[in-house]
Amino acid sequence: MAIGLDQAREQALANQSALDHFSSFSGHRQCLTELALSAALASEGTLCVLGAGNCFDLDLAALARRYRAVHLVDIDAEALERAFTHQDPVTQERLVLHGSVDLSGFLDRIDRWSRFQVTPKELMEHGEATARQLRERLAGPFDVVLSACMLSQMQLSVLNVLSDRHRLFEAVRWTLNLTHFRTLAALTRSGGVGLFATDVSSSALHPLAALASDTDWLKLLGDLAQARQIFDFADPKAIAALLRDDPVLRAAFPGFDVSRAWLWSNGPEAKFLVYASELRRL
Known about the structure:
Helices cover 46% and strands 20% of the residues.
């Protein structure tokens, strides 16, 4: 568990380092909030946000006016508490905090897996077992579930622990994607909406900061994917194939289409290209 705890601390430090950059999240916050608001099925529905963290990318007051309950889930309990204290009392009444939740299900075993102490059966069953445990712990399902740019954070933890030279790296990376979408399916009620948003490229891969504000971000996504200037785990085609090939996901979601894309300024220098997909739960 020591390595897993290190990764949890790394995420907490990352959240703390972003505390001075609330204003830079403005455009990203507007896009992600609009995504969650547009998916609301009724004024008395419930929303669950996976990877809420500091909540800098969400207008919690606006969400609380639309949903009767907004469940915020993250590994960093202190970040959720900080976000909660900055809300007005009316908004606070509709917020439900779920701190210290490992949405990957990896943190208590990644150390063991890095030493090859894992069986094919454990890897194959990890996604379904984790999704089931999270549904029970979070008291799901919910009307709308938002994966808020957290897949990249979990994938970074895998890279940090295993490195891309580890013989299990690709298998674990694939298992993590499967686990996350199985969780999204398990937490979204029948007839509800799963929202998947992820950063897919960065200014380290492409000069995003030099692009005009009226850039066609969806077209740019296609161009960068073709040029392989994206995070391969977030490639829309690879995720669409995962949902198509896995029988549980194929039965849960009818397909995977990118509905919108935008630029995320994370602080004064870091820029990320983000895309989102709306998944109707069958």
